[in-house]
Amino acid sequence: METKTIGKGDVIIQKGSHETRAYIIESGRVEVSDIVNNKKTVLAILGEKQIFGEMGLVEDKPRSATVTAIEDTRLAMISRDNFNELFEKNPKVLLPIIKALFERLRTVNKMLISKETPDVVETIKYEGIRDAGFVVLSGLNEISSEALNGGEMKINNFPFKVGREHKSGGLDVLSDNDLYLEDSPPFNVSRNHFLIDKVEGKYVIVDRGSRLGTIVNGEEIDEQFVLNEKMCEIIVGKQASPFAFKLEIR
């Protein structure tokens, strides 16, 4: 796997190019952007251990956004040939890429459902709280606080993914989370349950296709919830779930 250091301000992927490599950020940060209504719109800020460009490994369409280093950034790069070679010799190295592809598949599946039932994403049209300060997750009870090591967690990179910890031994290629919750049968938390994202400067909570759903401010969200206040409460699963958190923008 080749590594490369990119200088601040350098473009890594240009929208419309036929880039066919995936990138893992070893250090630094990058900005994903697009031009909307003749104006630059920042879609995401990615940091250490996050991945971008993974769809270039599996499709030949032009890239849909521009990715630029916003500070000096060190990247691990995987081409299609590298992927095939590593798959034969050292497949564990590819786990981050494979998990990213599965997450993209989940996202596409939910988008298809949304097109069939457009009303479920009506809340995305609300103005929402725009990027300001920083985002903090804290527990609303003892179990939830323990999941955050007894304190609170500042969220720096988006999307921030939450799901159930895998306990049966061995690797779990099908789950990909930043926060793993230790649950027991009958499970409240799905392996890939919900995520917190920042879309065009707005903070969004998205259920990732969980079995029991995600409740925000007392209501189960069908698809996406745009945060239009600086604080909300999140229950992972049904109302009686022991996993309850407060999300704040400070």
UniProtKB/TrEMBL annotation:
It comes from Candidatus Scalindua rubra. Residues 1-104 form the Cyclic nucleotide-binding domain. GO terms for molecular function: voltage-gated potassium channel activity. InterPro entries: cNMP-bd_CS, cNMP-bd_dom, cNMP-bd_dom_sf, FHA_dom, K/Na_HCN_channel, RmlC-like_jellyroll, SMAD_FHA_dom_sf. GO terms for biological process: regulation of membrane depolarization; sodium ion transmembrane transport. One of its GO terms (cellular component) is HCN channel complex. PANTHER family: I[[H]] CHANNEL, ISOFORM E. It comes from the Bacteria. Pfam families: cNMP_binding, FHA. PROSITE patterns: CNMP_BINDING_2, CNMP_BINDING_3, FHA_DOMAIN. Residues 160-221 form the FHA domain. This is Transcriptional regulator of Crp family.
